[in-house]
Amino acid sequence: MSEILSQLWTPELQMAMTVFVVMLVILYVLSVVWVVRDAYLRGTMWYVWAIVALVPVVGIIAYCLLRPPLLQIDRDEQELEVALKQRQLMQYGECGNCGYPVEADYILCPNCHQRLKNQCVKCGHALDPSWTVCPYCATSLPAAPARRGARTTSHPHQQAAPQANPAGKAPLQGATRQQER
Ligand SMILES: [Zn+2]
Ligand SMILES: [Zn+2]
């Protein structure tokens, strides 16, 4: 029996076994390093997880099952992304005629061709039909009759802005009219 074993235990097999064991050790060390690093990045108590990870196989499986779900950096990034999306949404409204989503600076509805905004003759910015002065270049505008459905029903923040300060608007309007004459 021992003769057969010694015959099977060739130098090649010995070599293969050594390589296999070395690989296992490297894998074990790497797994511990990974757990420590990952736990640190996730903002958990990494030293506790380091001790857990020292238990071969079981340690790393336990960590994979119980680790906190998100990296701290990812969490921050997600919050930023949500804030950005909300700001982008604030720039959108919908066509008063057909309800098609339109951006705040659209002049026409791309869907039904309803006129949404006037265009400043001087700087070309899109202007709300109710405005009597261009907020971008201070050009006073001809008092166009406000059309029904021509205003975008956008976010309340946007519509509140031009009407919020009527006292400040009047002198500016008068000043620009005087400049023109
Ligand atoms: Zn439309
Ligand atoms: Zn303008």
UniProtKB/TrEMBL annotation:
Keywords: Membrane, Transmembrane, Transmembrane helix. The keyword Membrane applies. InterPro entries: DZR. The chain crosses the membrane at residues 12-34, 46-66. It comes from the Bacteria. Residues 158-171 have a biased composition (Low complexity). It holds the Pfam family DZR. Residues 95-137 form the DZANK-type domain. It comes from Slackia piriformis YIT 12062. This is DZANK-type domain-containing protein. The keyword Ribonucleoprotein does not apply. Residues 147-181 are annotated as: Disordered.
